[in-house]
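Here is one record:
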Amino acid sequence: MTAPRTATARPPSATPARTGGELIDVAAKPLTSAARRQRVPRWLRRSVGPLALLLAWAVCSQLGWLNPQLFPPPAQVLASAWELLSSGQLSTHVGRSVLRVLQGTVLGIVAGLVIAVLAGLTRFGEDLLDSTMQVFKAVPNFALTPLLIIWMGIGEGPKVLLITMGVAIAIYINTYSGIRSVDGQLVEVAQTLGARRGELIWHVILPGATPGFLVGLRLGLSSAWLSLIFAETINTTQGIGFLMSRAQTLLQFDVSILIIIIYAVAGLLSYALVRFLERRLLVWRRGFQGV
């Protein structure tokens, strides 16, 4: 005969189950500040600052704290924008400026990347190119405007070249720094595992230099719009720089403020583009995101 089985007592659970009342109490607790922030879209939170500036401008204009002759109210600026848009002038000038920025930015990115890779990967390239780029960095490209006019005339060449130089220098400085900041131990491990030169560059060095490149792109896009202001003073009849010069000559302060707003919006869109690229290209990096 087999001995009857005896019931063994189960050990008490380390975490007792919550009762229905306790679950209700937990759910009823107020959200933390971080959780409340997550409920508000990120783009909306980022828009608070610019919207606050616009609101302060409107309030100060309404209260009479700003001279309407020197600092027109938002309604007058909006009316001028609608007038220029209806006549087709605004779209023509903005389109021409955007085209110049795109051309100069693409050329600057290509030139800056090529020079940074050549100087960053080899000591010979560093000795040959780095000092030259440092010279261009020290000399403001705006100071070259008269010489570019003499050398290249008053066509589109000097305007695009000014933008290209500003972007290329920013891309080069940061990408070169990113390449030289790659952890040497990672390179040694890749070489130990038998990685060839092309694989080492493609899988280790270039990914490690990507954050530096994106920083350079952010600075380069800002430099592109700044260079555009000076580039469009070179005997041109199209572009938002031309609109700004004409508005200053005719004392059209509402148009001047409109151009400043256009520059600000262009800068914000450029910044948003870089952040989008960072989210796509740096998914492997988990950096500090703030608290």
Notes: Confidence is low (pLDDT under 50) at residues 1-10, 23-29. Residues 222 and 268 are 10 Å apart (CA to CA). The first helix runs from residue 20 to 28. The chain has 13 helices and no strands.
